Amino acid sequence: MSYTALYRKFRPDNFADVKGQDHIVTTLTNQIKAGRIGHAYLFCGTRGTGKTTVAKILAKAVNCEHPKDGNPCNQCEMCRSIQAGTSMNVIEIDAASNNGVDNIREIREEVAYRPTQGNYKVYIIDEVHMLSTGAFNALLKTLEEPPSYVIFILATTEAHKIPVTILSRCQRYDFHRISIDTIADRLKELLKTEGVEAEDKAIRYVAKAGDGSMRDALSLLDQCIAFYLGQTLTYDKVLEVLGAVDTEVFSRLLRLVLAGDVAGSIQILEQLITGGRELGQFVGDFTWYMRNLLLVKTSENAEEAIDVSSENMKLLQEESEMTDVPTLMRYIRIFSELSNQIRFATQKRVLVEIALIKLCRPAMETDLSSVLDRIRVLERQMEERPAPQVIVRDAKQGDRREQQEEEPVRAVMAAPEDLQKIVAGWKTIVSGTTGGFKQMLLKSVPKYNAETGSPVLYVEFQEFLGQAYADKPEYKEELQNIIEQQTGKYVEIEMLVAKQHQNTNLVEITVDQAIKENIHMDVEIEEDE
């Protein structure tokens, strides 16, 4: 006897067994019990969420000789013939391969004949978005006014491709992605029935890998069981079969990236490749790991938004303190771009290595997020550097002695970090203004007080016409609001005109200058004899 795949073997045969689509099941059972059955339904949703399954159950329920609370009995002759696929009342059509006008014309001719058994002829058209324009037009009239004994059920994964004229003639039902908990509970039931032992952690990983699709999760589970036939299914075995990577590896990799360790990062990648891990899945999973880290960093109740174990949550919380939001956003952007490039690439490994080097070396990029990451790296290097040494030569004894200074001496205080970020995105901020104010701002020079280092942004207009804007508080308020929207920071602003103010401590803010001012070298001072 041939083997039947799990998703076929355990396909629900009544509405009660359909998981994760309660909103649809309740509506359809109420319609059947009340005798308010529609003539055309449109089932939309991602793959493996139960569209075709629900369509077949509905076809059985409307033709069942002894329905029970809107569910088919699965015992009568009609139910058994529909279940076996031999009933003439249920016609399944794959629109991907039968998408022409002639195929629809055949349907129009067939609907003229009443069913020989049962109450309804049910046409299930799968992947209906694949029909040609002519086929859709041929279907319109029949779909709008079919005979009383005909029901159309259209199923699609891409509802946006369905013409509006078709949508307006159907009752639309959107199938949701199934939650990880719901899929995991269903997998446990099936494993118990099959007599297979499995770790809860392994089951949850398979459920998560299903990505909201019950069918995909069952196919992956089938693959894992077959590989380790007769053995207990463990978490490590699941990772081995699916070519996935443990989250602990992601944690080690991220820490190496934050430390700027290119060699260490490439070495971990080498270990993954040697272990047979699939690079496309590695890129997607690492992106997801950084997404979880970003949620921990920005969310007040991260435990509710992230489905990870308590051990992994502790690691994420620890790593969230090691980085900042702009850096994480840059990492996610680079790997998201990589996931699109790697799909059809022949040199996948090279692309992944380049992406890791970009993460470790923000100087390779010139956008704002990489500049902020460079500042973060410089700040970390400053904290790790020892205090600068001053070597003094004694003129009388001719010996040298070393002294440790607690703080390096600086003549000019650096601009605050918030002002550096504002200036880095100055053109974007100015683009939010209009008219003459915008023209003046484009020619203006953002400055700060180099003596006090206070977080006040001085906007110095270079033309005397700028005085008209400096004198009116509404312009200052407008600029403050735009900066707050762009950066999330409220900043004090002073607007003045060059050559008309007496403040000699104002210095222009540049990102490059800010980086240089944060680098301090050891100095050697010698006294003349």
Beginning-to-end CA distance, first to last residue? 102 Å
Overall 3D form: extended
| Portion in strands | 5-15%
Uncertain runs are 400-411, 514-527
Helix percent reads 40-55%
Assembly type: single chain
The largest sheet, given as strand count, sense and whether it forms a barrel, is: 5 strands, parallel
Number of helices: 25
Average pLDDT confidence is 82
Write up what this structure looks like.
The structure is a single chain. By secondary structure, this protein is an alpha/beta fold. The protein is built from 25 helices and twelve strands. The chain has helices at 6-9, 22-34, 51-63, 77-84, 101-110, 133-144, 164-167, 180-194, 200-209, 214-227, 235-242, 247-258, 262-274, 279-298, 302-305, 310-320, 325-342, 348-360, 368-384, 417-424, 426-430, 435-443, 467-470, 473-487, 511-517; strands spanning 40-45, 90-94, 121-126, 150-156, 171-175, 389-393, 400-404, 445-449, 456-461, 492-497, 506-508, 523-524. Strands 2-3-4-1-5 form a five-stranded parallel beta sheet, covered by helices on one side. α6 (133-144) links the parallel β3 (121-126) and β4 (150-156). The longest helix is centred in the middle third of the chain and has 20 residues, at 279-298. The radius of gyration is 34 Å and the shape is extended.
Brief summary:
With 529 residues, the chain is α/β, with parallel strands linked by helices.
Present the secondary structure layout.
Elements: H1 6-9, H2 22-34, E1 40-45, H3 51-63, H4 77-84, E2 90-94, H5 101-110, E3 121-126, H6 133-144, E4 150-156, H7 164-167, E5 171-175, H8 180-194, H9 200-209, H10 214-227, H11 235-242, H12 247-258, H13 262-274, H14 279-298, H15 302-305, H16 310-320, H17 325-342, H18 348-360, H19 368-384, E6 389-393, E7 400-404, H20 417-424, H21 426-430, H22 435-443, E8 445-449, E9 456-461, H23 467-470, H24 473-487, E10 492-497, E11 506-508, H25 511-517, E12 523-524
Parallel strand pairs: 1-4, 1-5, 2-3, 3-4, 6-12, 9-10
Antiparallel strand pairs: 6-7, 8-9, 8-11
Helix pairs in contact: 3-4, 5-6, 8-9, 9-10, 9-11, 10-11, 12-13, 12-16, 13-18, 14-16, 14-17, 17-18, 17-19
